[in-house]
Amino acid sequence: MAVKPDIVTLDRIGEFDTLIDARTPAEFALDHLPGAVNLPVLDDEQRRLVGTIYKQAGAFEARRIGGAWVARNIARHVERTMQDKPAHWRPLVYCWRGGQRSGSFVLWLRQIGWAAAQLQGGYKGYRRWVVEQLQALPPTLRWRVVGGPTGSGKTRLLRALAARGAQVLDLEALARHRGSILGAWPDGQPQPSQKAFDTALVDALRRFDPARPVWVEAESRKIGAVQLPQALVDALQRAPRVQVEAPFAARLALVLEDYAWLGRDPQALAQRLTALRGLQPNDTLARWQTWALAGNLPDLFAELMTHHYDPLYRRSQDRSGVPPWRTVPVAALDTDGLNRAASDLLNDTGQGTHA
Questions:
Q1: Catalytic pick among 95, 202, 342, 345
Q2: pTM, two decimal places
Q3: Quick one: which of 141, 271, 318, 353 has the fewest CB in 10 Å?
Q4: What local confidence, expressed as pLDDT, does residue 355 receive?
């Protein structure tokens, strides 16, 4: 006699030892619940074929063929990944909306003897919850926004704050992008999908203590290809802002260090600069592309900062109309200078420091 699978809600995830995503690898790559492992009951091609058969030959034929694939795939997962699992192991399985894929997997596992359960609503229900959290969580937190022009060490200052026990949200790390035309991650690392970014953001927001400040770098609405939720944008616009000020020479040295990898492919760098066409005079853009091709990064980045990034930053500050809560002068953007700035900020907010 078949055992009816236990169906549980999102709030009970912590009761289980392993979270299994039974969707295809392509679905899993687009987004998945934090900590989930992908054990698909149908691979990408099998799912496509089942859908085609369903349309052409009907539901029974699709289930007959797809059922055999599901059985073989589940058997393979049991043989390859579950042979070391003890009798008391408790897996929680989900698919797109808590339907046949995860239900079939759970039935197999429960027949073996494991107390497997199915996530109610599957990924679709989880995604709905994520969207709700993106609106609900940002207003509950005490934000402190770190601003400053390009090269002023904002990301490094956040790291120094985190090292001293402060709560820090690194949006650029979550987005895998620095938020500018040259902000792509090194070596072609892709950005997450919007859904994966949302998932990572909610996972980070839920870990913060609302009673303590959360430090975050000032960002525009979009970081590369991903977009911040409106509730977070609104919360950051209302939050106290720290303005980092550093000498131009120190800023240029930091930019040259952080973006040195762009010099490894001069052609690609020159191509990236075409995004500024229409924003800069043609002769200026041509000069910058010539410097890019020649590997002349010091002159290129110096003019990019003075002609593009700094004016852009000044305009954004003028539009906000909100004066900074505090200005933080940093003479040297080295480890010592940023550590001192972090300690001063935390002392001012009553958080103190620790090693």
A1: 95
A2: 0.90
A3: 318
A4: 33
